[in-house]
Amino acid sequence: MSRQTLKVFSGNANPDLAREICDYIGVPLGRAIVKTFSDGEIFVEIGENVRGSDVFVIQPTCPPVNHNMMELLIMIDALRRASSRRITAVLPYYGYARQDRKAAPRVPITAKLVADLITTSGARRVLAMDLHAGQIQGFFNIPVDHLFAAPILLKYIRENFADDLVMVSPDAGGVERTRAFAKRLGAGLAIVDKRRERPNESQVMNVIGDVKGKTAIILDDMVDTAGTLCQAAQVLLDQGAKVVHGCATHPVLSGPAVERITSSPLASMVVTNSIPLGPEARKVEKITVLSVAELLGEAIQRIHNDDSVTSLFV
Asked: How far apart are CA 110 and CA 201, in angstroms?
């Protein structure tokens, strides 16, 4: 057992999730002032002694991405200067994850830049969940524990959907994830072939696989503008699917996403609370939110106690 004191702090990105995690662990949420001055600068003051402590900072870098990122970096710096023994950045959602390679000439690899910033600020470990690209773990020169929301999502699917399931990947990049779900559920597998014309815009072209007469569940790691999701739902119905549901870990839901989901043929949309829903999304009855607090809380406890977290990587 670790002799260091376990402390958990949160920025303003998702304090409700942080409080849920603290309730599961059985520790109070750390006291800290995290506010923004009138000129936009962020101010942080840690309100308790953290010298020699094992500190976890819970802060998804969700919209507003840059503001939440700066809160995280400044909190880590404040904790490092207050002599914390070890600081772990807990990122239920990793912003800039889609910029993980040079997809065109003269563009940055921003996911790597963000990893460098988090490390330079003073983090000595990262706990992340459902990274958009697994290779982001290699962008860090510090240990990264990469969790998956799969156990939570699989349990919900088993309890709420019929046996005639087909798991659908919205693009070629998500096939591995979708195949893993299909295998565990004993379900079929289908792939939506799409061609992206511009960022955040896509055109669905074809469906690979048999969906006729089946309950189709479109699986993705995140839903952003929901354009691909809603187009895919309509194409699946056109191909004979009985009903279509959506399932994603991170509900980014930017731009017209809420309106699209509301007016789409999707019967339901299942997400987690890695990102807090906005006020408009909370009013949409077809959106169901599952909590990842116990999963993250268990990982935090095991990391603090130097126990294995391998059993959580499923």
From this structure: 21
